[in-house]
Specification:
Layout lengths: L4 E6 L4 H15 L4 E5 L11 E9 L2 E2 L1 H9 L1 H4 L3 E8 L6 H4 L10 H7 L3 E6 L1 E2 L6 H10 L4 E2 L3 H17 L4
Parallel strand pairs: 1-2, 1-3, 3-5, 5-6
Antiparallel strand pairs: 3-4, 7-8
Helix pairs in contact: 1-7
This protein binds flavin mononucleotide (FMN).
The site of flavin mononucleotide has 25 residues, from helix 1, strand 3, strand 5, strand 7 and helix 6.
Length: 173
């Protein structure tokens, strides 16, 4: 069957890839044929009716693969149903409050405005200090991000379930 939904993600250590896979799993279970791919490995976007794009956040920035993806595909994405997510904040509590209302890099505001996403979510992330090199450990201290896996699978599942409902309402699946 023709793929209808793409989940494109940018990750450094894999936490965001797992969030993207979870979103893909929920969409497939809802009957929506879905591809989950790293943002720098996506070919022709035009076959998809809906696209979810997510990136890990490092020092207030999205990974460059995600930035390139939205910038390079702006025209096609503007014609599709699009959802965005950032995955980053660690620690207890509302992830948007943890990052003082930040949702995506401000530099991307113009392109995101032109794309017109249905929603932009912020999910808790995971920091495994054992995977970080010296510079990243130093950078981590500066952003004061607690170490640990704070990913909220319930929040991710419920966001993906709402996407599935909207897509089904739009006649997909
Ligand atoms: C050096 C460093 C800087 C980070 N900076 C931010 C940040 O500015 N904002 C944020 O919300 N999370 C930040 N984080 C947390 C990461 O976004 C989080 O660990 C994320 O889940 C990583 O995803 P990945 O495993 O897909 O790369 C930072 C983590 C590290 C190690």
């Amino acid at each position: 069957m023709e793929k209808q939904v793409l989940v494109a993600y940018a990750t450094k250590y894999g936490a965001t890839a797992e969030i993207a896979e979870k979103i893909g799993q929920v969409l497939r279970q809802a009957g929506l044929p879905t591809d989950v791919l790293p943002a720098d490995r996506v070919g022709d976007l035009s076959a998809y009716k809906a696209v979810v794009v997510g990136s890990a956040v490092y020092i207030g920035r999205w990974r460059k693969e995600a930035v390139k993806f939205v910038e390079a595909n702006e025209t096609v994405l503007a014609e599709q149903l699009v959802w965005l997510f950032s995955s980053g904040p660690t620690g207890e509590g509302d992830p948007v409050e943890l990052v003082q209302g930040w949702r995506f890099p401000k530099k991307l505001q113009p392109v995101i405005d032109r794309i017109g996403p249905r929603d932009i979510a912020v999910f808790h992330g995971a920091v495994d200090v054992g995977k970080l090199n010296f510079i990243q450990k130093w950078a981590l201290k500066n952003v004061k991000a607690p170490v640990g896996d704070f990913r909220d699978w319930e929040a991710i599942t419920s966001w993906a379930t709402a996407i599935a409902a909207e897509l089904k309402g739009a006649g997909l699946a």
